Amino acid sequence: MNMIPSVDLNDFISNDPKKKQKFVDAIGKAYEEIGFVALKGHFLDDTLADNLYKEVKHFFELPVETKQSYEIPGIGGQRGYVSFGKESAKGKKEGDLKEFWHFGQYVEDDDKLKAEYPDNVIVNELPEFNKVGKEAYQMLEKTAKYVLRALALYLGLDELYFDVYIHNGNSILRPIHYPPITQEPDEAVRAAAHGDINLITLLMGAQGRGLQVQNHEGEWIDAIAEADELMINVGDMLSRHTNNKLKSTIHRVINPPRELWGTSRYSIPFFMHPISDMKLNVLDGCVDEENPKAFEDITAGEFLTERLIELGLIKK
Ligand SMILES: O=C(O)CCC(=O)C(=O)O
Ligand SMILES: [Fe+2]
Fold first, then answer.
1. How far apart are CA 143 and CA 39, in angstroms?
2. Domain, as residue range, for 105
3. Residue 86 lies in a domain
4. What per-residue confidence (pLDDT) applies to 255?
5. Per the domain annotation, does 212 fall within a domain?
6. CA of 18 relative to ligand 1 center, distance in Å
7. Count of domains in the chain?
8. Is the CB of 196 under 6 A from ligand 1?
9. CB of 191 closer than 6 angstroms to any ligand 1 atom
10. DSSP string spanning 83-96?
11. Which of 227, 235, 38 is CA-nearest to residue 143?
């Protein structure tokens, strides 16, 4: 499989059962094979996406001292700014060549979760950044909810199975800036090969080249979505919950050829996480003689903490 299939969310949302089933089958098959799809018909419109990119660029252009004033100690980088080189992929010692920001959940109707999550960090210099970040967060979350509904049907679960776990979930919108490369990097790359931690990841298509996905044969293929598509992949939480039926595919961001070292790269993944109490225990329907239970029982919160330690974002 050398192609990332394209699907249209309008098929799922339409009242036509045939189209809906076609969407469910296509996304399920893609996730059993390559682990990625390109999705049209999502809820993030062009104007909002353009404004988000504009504001994100303004943010990363702020003086480094200003950005660092938004780096909050003690929360594992879960909100606000994370400076250059701090995060490394699981198993790597070199930090990735990136700086990033985290917008988190906007809890309005659950005091317990509101207290559990760190507050969102407000950038005083850029009122629009805060506003556009929240709007984009909510539109991507809505898109992800429908994708998970389709996957629930594919897995033989109730269509609304994931809804209770993702309402006020611990999702994160992460604008990333990969700065220009100024000297021959030793071992470090923009983002070393990794699987995402969460249930599913939504990535806007507009970004430049660089993202690559590893297929079953171990070959790296370029993942390029069209401007109106979101690239959506399975993360390790969903892969675990489905006993590896849905694949969390390894991907990376390679450094550009030398003539493009002078250019920045921006990308804005939305990592869909459930609430921390969700049990990621392997679903009964995903276990049979050929596929024995491959993972220990664990909650989403425990799994996240384990991985943030491995990424260097929380200290043991
Ligand atoms: O920058 C990209 O295109 C992808 C980044 C990524 O895979 C990640 O942050 O998990
Ligand atoms: Fe990723």
1. 10
2. 6-310
3. yes
4. 87
5. yes
6. 34
7. 1
8. yes
9. yes
10. -TT----TT--SPP
11. 38
pLDDT tens figures, 67-94: 999 999 888 889 999 998 877 778 777 7
Whether 315 is in a domain gets the answer no
β-bridge pairing 80-82 and 36-40: unpaired
Distance 231 CA to ligand 2 centre (A): 11
| pLDDT tens-digit map of 8-18 | 999 999 989 99
Q: Which of ligand 1's atoms lies nearest the C-alpha of 100? A: 9
Nearest residue by C-alpha to atom 3 in ligand 1:
211
Strand order in the sheet with 191-194: 191-194, 251-253, 211-214, 220-222
The pLDDT of residue 115: 95
Q: Which of 16-30, 152-166, 185-199 has the lowest mean pLDDT?
A: 185-199
- Pocket residue to mutate for ligand 1, from 200, 211, 266, 308, most atoms within 8 A of Cβ: 211
Does 1 reside within a domain?
no
Look at ligand 1, atom 9, and give the residue with the nearest C-alpha.
269
Provide the β-strand partners of residue 200: 234, 272
Token look-up 């990592």 returns 271
Mutation probe of ligand 1 site: the residue of 251, 266, 271, 311 with most atoms within 8 A of C-beta: 251
Residues whose CB is less than 8 angstroms from the CB of residue 51 and which lie 6 or more positions away in sequence, other chains included? 128, 132
235-259 tens-digit pLDDT: 999 999 999 999 999 999 988 888 8
Ligand 2 centroid, distance to 191 Cα (angstroms): 8
Question: Residues whose CB is under 5 A from ligand 2 (ion)?
Answer: 196
> Residue 313 pLDDT more than 80?
no
213 to each of 87, 140, 207, how far by Cα in Å?
Answer: 20, 22, 15
Which tens digits make up the pLDDT trace of 94-127? 788 889 999 999 998 999 999 999 999 999 999 9
Q: Tell me, what CATH number does 235's domain have?
A: 2.60.120.330
Phi, psi of 239, deg, nearest 5: -65, -45
Give the model's pLDDT for residue 296. Answer: 96
